[in-house]
Every structure is written in structure tokens, then in C-alpha cells.
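Format notes (please read before filing issues)

Several people have asked whether sequences and C-alpha cells are stored in separate files. They are not. Every record keeps both together, in the order shown below: the sequence lines, then the C-alpha cell lines. Line labels are part of the format and must not be stripped during preprocessing.
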Amino acid sequence: MGLFGLFGSGESSKSNDDNTETWKHLTSEEQLEVIEEASASKPVAIFKHSTRCGISSMVLRQLKNSFDIPEDELDMYYLDLLKYRNVSDEVAARFGVLHQSPQLIVIKDGEVVHHASHHSISFEQLSQLV
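Then the structure lines:
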């Protein structure tokens, strides 16, 4: 299965053979306002992925294979930063986190409480923040 098959074409993927069915696609700057507001009631995570980077693909695969956090405990967003570079730039500006790829950013109460990149991204860290 190709990478695009993991995420489908809708706002959230509905594949039955992976753990990303509750991940939402981050495709517009307007969604960042929704993310900030939602982070008041539960954590929100953004995974920034470069579809041209082998390390990013490996980290995505590891994260997806471990991911089992229920949607009512965490909103998880997937950002294809090559396709939506303007959104990636706005994430960096709005949340004050230097752009990296791959990158995982966790937001609570409108503030970044954790960010990691490359091999520092781990499901264990993410699950401890929920």
C-alpha cells in the first residue's frame, strides 16, 4: 500500500488496516484556529511529514504502527508539508516552533507543550502527554 493509501482523500482516513483512521488532514491555515480552540478541552497533535524524506516516512510508519489513542483523548492531525507548505509555515509562526521535518507538535490550551523531530519522535512520549 502506498503512502497516500494510508490517509485516503477525506478529512480523516477510514482505512481498516492501520491505526490512523482518526487522524485528520491539516490542509488550511483556518484549521489552526480550530486546533487552538480544541486544545482547550483535549490535547491536539500535528505530525508534519515530508513525502520526499525517507526518515520522515520511517517515523510516520513507526508512529502509525504504535498509534492507539482514542479520538476522544487526542485530536491527531497529519500535515503533508510539501503540499501545504503555507500551512506548515503558519504552524511554525503561530506556535513559535522552528520548522523541522518530520516533526510532532503537541498543543494544550493553545500552547505547545511538546515538540520533537526526526528520531526523537516517539509514541511513548505522545501517549504520556494525553
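For reference, the curators noted about this record: The chain is about 35% helix and 20% strand. Confidence is low (pLDDT under 50) at residues 1-17.
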